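Objective 1.3, modelling of assemblies. Example input:
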Amino acid sequence: MASIALSRVTKSYGGQSVINGVDLDIHDGEFLTLVGPSGCGKSTTLRIIAGLETQTAGDVSIDGSLVNETRPSLRDLAMVFQSYALYPHLTVRQNLITPLRLRDLNFWERFPLLGHLVPSRRAKMAQIEKEVQLVSETLKIEPLLARKPGQLSGGQRQRVALGRAMVRNPAAFLMDEPLSNLDASLRVHMRAELSALHKKLKTTFVYVTHDQAEALTMSDRIAVMMDGDLLQLGSPEEVYQNPQDIRVAEFIGSPKMNILPGYCDELGNITCAGFSLDGTLEIPSPGPVSVGFRPEHLTLTEPNADQSLAGKLTYKENLGSDVFFHITQEGIEGSIIIRAQPLISTPQQPGDIIHCTPVPGKPLVFGPDGQRLDFKALAQSGTSS
Amino acid sequence: MGRSKAHYWFVGPAILLMLLLLIAPVVVAAALSMTDYSLGNSGFNWIGWENYEKLFTRRSYSKMFTASLTYVLLVVPISVALGLGSALLISSLRIGGELYKAIFFLPVMATLLAMAIVWEFALNPIVGVVNDILRSGCDKSVIYGFLSGSWLGYDPLESWYGSACEKKFPLWLGDRKYALGTIAFIGIWQAFGFNMVLYLAGLTSVPRELYQAAQMDGADSAWERFKLVTWPMLGPTHVFVITISSIRSFQVFDTVEALTEGGPSKSTYVMIYAMFEKGVRQNLLGMGSAITIVFLIFVLILTLVQVYFVNRKVHY
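Predicted structure (tokens):
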């Protein structure tokens, strides 16, 4: 159990900056996810917390004490690697014992063969065995203890890697894309298991992923990183519903948020793709703006409906539970995606012109610099402009 | 569908060539080893196991086995350890690694026969540079005191260096006590660069993340990480390096032929040299073949040990 704090941490490799001053407070017992596209500096941030890399500037502290100069093993953190990094020549049991052995036994007790003669060794080994037993029961890997990592499936290796992290009862777990080598269904399953494990252990988890679905499903808080900057830190709901930056808005959510070019007038009224939004900007910023609609915030309407957005259906993506319509409109780059229930979606065919309207109050408006602008929707009384 | 015979045509040429080029010579050698055949003779007599009996009873052949085994036991461990050590040091360098690699690999690329001639000059007891250097230290009290142990209060004449200064420095290749060791030294000098390159290749295949995992697990010292990660992960490389070095050391010939010709008093009479002397120089093909067969068995044992015992333990 520990809180971790980064303050103004930067990292550069030979003049190339990969992390530009990240401030991050990770609370005790929290499940915090660092999410971002590959190359955004999230793994480097994790390694800096672990002590495997040294920051160029800034401070890392664990439970209030500065650990800039502390070596990884003394930071009392455990790490799960993307490749699992299990020792391939050792059995699962030996893999689990290794961190305890290195921590608890002294030099003489670890000495090959002669170590067995040191009297204190026996009691310590018994204690270690007990802890290994406990962890393997929790993770249900007891039947695997005698095997070597090469004889395990991906999911089993993943569990063993978790186990090796758990045996030490670390102050915090650091996980570097631990699920990305698993197949899709196992990944979904492990997501739930990791969440359950976090609730059970009540330990701080710092989790790195490029998969926004993992971030949304498991975390207490999400830190979205891009190009070495921490863009937004907040709960999954907040990051999804209230992205503060257009890059966050585009990255979080699947399918991607639709971004349409819009225009703001002197009074703060916004027109976009041929219709005007039912609201105004708190502080008008005349000029071009970007308007974002999540696919579920667009609804199909009749062709004659007031204030609708029309486009040609190019592709209908049926996922069973949802149907996504991809439509194109002249003058707009890319396609606009609309999410609909399968029931109402049946008649349309690719090539048809279909119409949709945004759900009132849901559009997100971003300024030319990508920052979120405060858009105030009109009261839900049904009065449109 | 009729049974096609096409498969015979596919495997036939390969099997034929293998029999002709690989198996037949061994069978012929095995047959010859049971005869007293000499090249140019019109006939030969079957003499059964007589050649083998001589091999395992005569003194000169027991010297042959001793020389070969001693050579292997000297060269293999030392050249493997040096190869691993230098590979570890070079891989830890940030700059200059390429230069060291090139330097250590030079003896491997050079023709051993040409190098042997250089060594012959260097080791010449009268005009050789080795003894020159050793001799020049005798009248320099710092070097003399250090090498003869007189600094530590020992009697300088009791030490190897002290007594050599007093009397004379070894003849190296001409002295029964030193000849095999000197040949082995040249063998090590030549072989370790090759082992180093193999180990360097092995080291690049050790995943970085394993070292990081070891660091997180508390393997703080480089020695702990070496024990936990490097040494076991190099398992397949160890097996390969040791097997190759053993076979190559069993095959040592050119330095012996160029420098000592098996002497003095058969102290460097290694197997391949014996094969050459018996089979080619003295035209005793039967005896030469018998040595060849014994040699093949040695190599076969090494290979079998590699395949059946070690390979299973090092591939995880």
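Residues 176 and 267 of chain B are 6 Å apart (CA to CA).
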